[in-house]
Design brief:
Helix content: 40-55%
Order of helices and strands: HHEHEEHEHEEEEHEHHHHHH
Number of domains: 2
Radius of gyration: 32 Å
Number of helices: 12
Length: about 350
């Protein structure tokens, strides 16, 4: 049978409802949405928990040893697996701002590595303001702080800092980027993937004269637990097994779709339709309902994700492409297994069983 004739026959079966394409599309859609959709919901929940864990400062650790921190060693911790960034701080003489003349404002030196932790986008000259201090003084990056003695200080950036750590020194400080020479008071590390090894490595930041002492190693926010290792949680999520069930159920659906038409297919074989032609025609017909089910699945998962993030006040575009790609792989695999199972089942149809199928109808 020529390709054009195969396509014409498959189109005729789809148009007349012989293949039950609409029903099978809806059934496969339900299978994929329940399995892949539930798994992606679990993935999204885990990612949101991890984002909250980071936003609340639970990945921030400090090693405190006044006058006992080596800044270059501290910044070298950024190369340790699981550490996002590291930098050192030390106290300096407090400032008196013209807009707050009755109080002193904490001032600190910051080594260059701290810029990664605080989210300072550029290395422009000037000081960094805490979010609270920037709001209180009404000073934005590019402007100047005026001190009570009339001198001015350029503001290079306003860093981000977790609201949950409002008690910490950096929450109300003016930071001055400073070369990492000399001794420092604290080593800060943003440890996204926590394990005992990377926290123990922070002791490497101590100077040789203080290496034998017992500095204070602190996780700044312990309310959310000690760690939230995203990669491990995603790899061990219980819903991942649903992705195994999706192609299995899709294959069973493909087999059932062909078995429901076994009398028709056996009759076709009986009148001379070859096994190859019947398999090719079935593959076309199955693709016609498996393909739309896959596309609709991705659309529903994408819409569900957008609706959920919009409802929580987050940017729905963040990570949308990753979610769709993660969902597309098992969805495409499921559609492929449905087509393959239906095609093989059709190819196995024997014309000798026509009368048996007729009696079983």
């Amino acid at each position: 049978m020529r390709g054009r004739e195969l396509l014409r026959e498959a189109t005729r079966n789809l148009a007349t409802g012989t293949t039950r394409a609409l029903t099978l599309t809806l059934v496969l859609l339900a299978i994929l949405v329940v399995t892949i959709g539930m798994d992606q919901a679990g993935v999204l929940g885990t990612r949101l928990d991890h984002a909250r864990f980071r936003a609340e400062g639970s990945t921030l650790w400090t090693l405190t040893s006044p006058g006992g921190i080596d800044a270059p060693r501290c910044e070298a911790l950024a190369a340790v697996p699981g550490v996002v960034g590291a930098g050192a701080t030390r106290a300096r003489e407090d400032l008196r701002l013209a807009v707050l003349p009755s109080t002193t404002t904490r001032a600190m030196d910051a080594s260059p590595g701290l810029r990664t932790i605080l989210g300072i986008p550029t290395a422009a000259p000037g000081v960094w303001l805490s979010p609270n201090l920037s709001a209180t003084t009404g000073t934005d990056p590019g402007e100047h702080l005026v001190l009570t003695d009339g001198t001015t200080v350029p503001v290079a950036g306003a860093y981000t800092f977790p609201e949950a750590l409002s008690w910490a020194a950096l929450s109300t400080a003016v930071l001055t980027p400073t070369p990492s020479a000399g001794v420092w008071d604290e080593c800060w590390a943003d440890i996204e993937v926590h394990h005992d090894g990377n926290t123990a490595a922070m002791r490497y930041a101590l100077t040789e004269t203080t290496a034998g002492e017992q500095p204070q190693l602190t996780q700044l926010n312990t309310a959310n637990g000690r760690s939230h290792n995203l990669a491990t949680l995603l790899a061990d999520r219980p819903t991942r097994w649903l992705l195994v069930g999706a192609p299995v159920l899709a294959a069973l659906l493909g087999i059932a779709a062909v078995r429901a038409r076994r009398l028709e297919l056996a009759a076709a074989r009986h009148v001379g339709v070859t096994r190859t032609d019947l398999a090719a025609q079935t593959a076309l017909e199955t693709t016609a309902w498996a393909g739309p089910a896959t596309i609709l699945t991705l659309a529903l998962i994408g819409l569900g994700r957008v609706a959920l993030l919009s409802g929580t006040g987050l940017d729905p575009r963040t990570g949308l492409t990753t979610t769709l790609l993660d969902a597309a792989r098992p969805a495409a695999l499921s559609a492929t297994t449905a087509v393959a199972a239906a095609t093989l089942t059709a190819a196995a149809t024997s014309p000798h069983l026509l009368y048996r199928y007729f009696r079983e109808r």
